[in-house]
From TrEMBL, chain A:
It comes from the Bacteria. One of its GO terms (molecular function) is ATP binding. It holds the Pfam family ABC_tran. Its main location: membrane. PANTHER family: ABC TRANSPORTER ATP-BINDING PROTEIN, DOXORUBICIN RESISTANCE ATP-BINDING PROTEIN DRRA. Keywords: Antibiotic resistance, ATP-binding, Cell membrane, Membrane, Nucleotide-binding, Translocase, Transport. It comes from Microcella putealis. Belongs to the ABC transporter superfamily. Drug exporter-1 (DrugE1) (TC 3.A.1.105) family. This is ABC-2 type transport system ATP-binding protein. GO terms for cellular component: plasma membrane. One of its GO terms (biological process) is doxorubicin transport.
TrEMBL record, chain B:
One of its GO terms (cellular component) is ATP-binding cassette (ABC) transporter complex. This is Transport permease protein. It comes from Microcella putealis. Residues 65-302 form the ABC transmembrane type-2 domain. It comes from the Bacteria. The lineage of its organism: Bacteria, Bacillati, Actinomycetota, Actinomycetes, Micrococcales. It is a multi-pass membrane protein.
Length: 327, 304
């Protein structure tokens, strides 16, 4: 049995004056002990709802969930003693200092005042918050709040860690730093379930990926397996000017093995091909004949973006902002 | 920012090792999960209740606006009513300032209880309730801590108001025991009302809405009462409302306990006006019996 196991989870919401939303629609999930699994999907796919069920915050309409054989739905208190959770928004008390926030969490885990204080001091050091330890959180930057929140999730060294979009809203540099922190944490053997809408985040951190859309898992595997499932090589061409997009697409359709898709920014187009080198030189040659100025052209292996696009029919970061309200 | 963050990531692994030496723990080790001290459920409840109460007391201390509002508002009310209305309203006996004080006390502590509503809504919005709900702690304790916070604010307001009242000529004409019973009754009523507001805060989920709504409800409730004027001359519908108003019963009880009932005051015919103490105690019991379980259940199913 998997360490975290969810079977056929269903959760519906009925927003006022709107049709029923099936936030979870028969979701299955298996997470092996000591691995990092990423739930990948756009906003509203059901990622946060899944984490809320597994962290005992909401009850599903039907389905089962266990963590280390403990029934999440029937025995939430035992589950709470073995998980740490860090949410999308840093859940810290603005008026308490960094140290006080962590000490409070320790006391609420019933570690006793002495251990709670000692552990808070350790986490302050680990997360390099020494300078901020004795100032109220109110004045902290977003990245620092996120670190305190993450530290709060680690107070008991939980065997299972849930991270719901840990880097959403962070600048790229803070995101990289947080990735490093998460990586050094999981090297200790913690089982991590992570949600993200960033493909590169799943690619970098996760041992296994479950792609979620409309409340169901639509594909799962390692990043490499998922990429291989999309198959084949691709040719990517970046234009100097967006104006040439239409003729370029015609050329790419002619020499490609499928329809070209926009690969970001309006100037880059990607098309699956059967024979990379032949197709590449044909496309570049045809573009030169029509005087289309190219900024860049090359072959590449499929990325998780391609996987996502193929599976869901839409790009990963196109968000329909429903989940926050429904949940 | 960048140097600080890079230092962080580099030092995590090393610091985790250092931490391990002290607690026998590593940053993410499964074998070394810290174990709770498993006391009885009751001792855990009191521990959680104290921690969340502490959190709300720290908020009072660290947010100067709350403290300022808590101190200034009652002083302002005492002075405004005494000198603006006091000149116009004839009260036999010790005069208007003695009549007024129980009314001001009641109004202030009832308003003070609305903090629980906006604070629960705000905590929900900030996600800190979600954090609490993933911890192996008592949910009821979060609510106890919150309502205790209101109790602290109200106790503080009472002290300030009494000092101000004393300066403008208010005197207690009863025994110390009766005086403390009066103070306790005011705080008890307000405490029970905090549970009503906590529930509404969780149900409405918006601090702004709960703030505006409580003004709409509480202004009529405190002004259409015997708090500031004798009610016998009010138009009949208002007089009847006032006689059945539990705030009137609270004010009447406090007046009696402080020995501030003007001589020859007319008491209404309604049962509630005839039995102010019983009315207050029944009101407190109903609020607690209904809203404590309702709030605890609401908390257990909350999620942002």
């Amino acid at each position: 049995m998997a360490f975290i196991e969810a079977r056929d989870l269903v959760k519906t919401y009925t927003p006022k004056g709107a049709p029923v939303v099936r936030a979870l629609d028969g979701l299955d999930l298996d997470v092996a002990q000591g691995t990092v699994t990423a739930l990948l999907g756009p906003n509203g796919a059901g990622k946060t709802t899944t984490v809320k069920v597994l962290t005992t915050l909401i009850q599903p309409d039907s389905g089962t969930a266990t963590i280390d054989d403990v029934d999440v739905l029937r025995d939430p208190d035992r589950v709470r003693r073995m998980i740490g959770a860090s949410g999308q928004y840093a859940a810290v008390d603005e008026n308490l200092t960094g140290f006080e926030n962590l000490m409070m969490v320790g006391k609420l885990y019933h570690l006793g005042a002495k251990v709670a204080k000692q552990r808070a001091r350790e986490l302050i050091e680990m997360f390099d918050l020494v300078d901020a330890a004795n100032r109220p959180v109110k004045g902290f930057s977003g990245g620092m709040r996120r670190r305190i929140d993450l530290a709060g999730a680690l107070v008991i060294n939980p065997p299972v860690l849930f991270l719901d979009e840990p880097t959403t809203g962070l600048d790229p540099r803070s995101r990289l730093a947080l990735w490093d922190i998460i990586e050094s944490l999981v090297s200790g053997g913690t089982t991590v379930l992570l949600t993200t809408q960033y493909l590169e985040e799943a690619d970098r951190l996760a041992d296994a990926i479950s792609v979620i859309d409309n409340g169901r898992v639509i594909a799962k595997g390692t990043a490499d397996e998922l990429k291989a499932s999309v198959g084949g090589q691709r040719v990517a061409v970046t234009l100097v000017s967006e104006r040439d997009a239409v003729p370029l697409r015609d050329i790419m359709s002619r020499f490609g093995a499928g329809a070209p898709v926009e690969g970001g920014g309006g100037r880059t187009w990607v098309v699956p091909v059967d024979n990379g080198p032949v197709a590449l030189s044909a496309i570049v040659g045809a573009a030169a004949e029509q005087n289309i100025a190219l900024h860049d052209a090359g072959m590449r292996r499929p990325t998780l973006d391609d996987v996502f696009l193929q599976l869901t029919g839409h790009a990963a970061e196109q968000a329909d902002e429903t989940e926050g309200e429904a949940a | 920012m960048s140097a600080e963050l890079n230092a962080t990531s580099a030092s995590v692994a090393g610091a985790a090792g250092a931490a391990a030496n002290r607690t026998g723990a590593t940053a993410g080790g499964t074998a070394s999960t810290l174990q709770p001290i498993l006391g009885s459920p009751i001792s855990r409840f009191f521990s959680d209740g104290w921690v969340t109460t502490w959190r709300n007391l720290m908020k009072i201390i660290r947010v100067p606006e709350i403290l300022l509002f808590t101190m200034i508002q009652p002083i302002m009310f005492v002075l405004l009513f005494t000198y603006v209305f006091g000149a116009a309203i004839e009260i036999p006996g010790d005069g208007y300032e003695s009549f007024l004080m129980a009314g001001i006390f009641a109004q202030t502590v009832v308003f003070g209880s609305t903090y629980s509503g906006s604070a629960m809504a705000q905590d929900l919005k900030d996600g800190i309730i979600d954090r609490f709900r993933t911890l192996p702690m008592s949910g009821a304790a979060v609510l106890v801590g919150r309502t205790n916070g209101d109790l602290a604010i109200n106790a503080l307001s009472m002290v300030v108001m009494m000092a101000t009242g004393f300066l403008v000529g208010w005197r207690v004409n009863s025994s110390p025991l009766e005086f403390f019973a009066g103070v306790a009754l005011l705080l008890l009523f307000a405490y029970a009302f905090s549970w009503v507001m906590a529930f509404l805060g969780m149900a409405v989920k918006s601090p702004e809405v709960i703030n505006n709504a409580s003004f709409l409800i509480l202004f009529p409730l405190t002004f259409i009462s015997n708090a500031f004027v004798p009610t016998e001359e009010l138009p009949t519908p208002l007089r009847i409302f006032s006689e059945w108003n539990p705030v009137s019963a609270l004010v009447q009880s406090a007046r009696e306990l402080f020995g501030n009932v003007p001589p020859g005051a007319i008491v209404g015919d309604a049962w509630t006006a005839q039995n102010p103490f019983a009315t207050v105690l029944i009101g407190v019991a109903v609020m607690l019996l209904v809203f404590v379980p309702l709030s605890i259940r609401k908390f257990a199913t909350l999620s942002r």
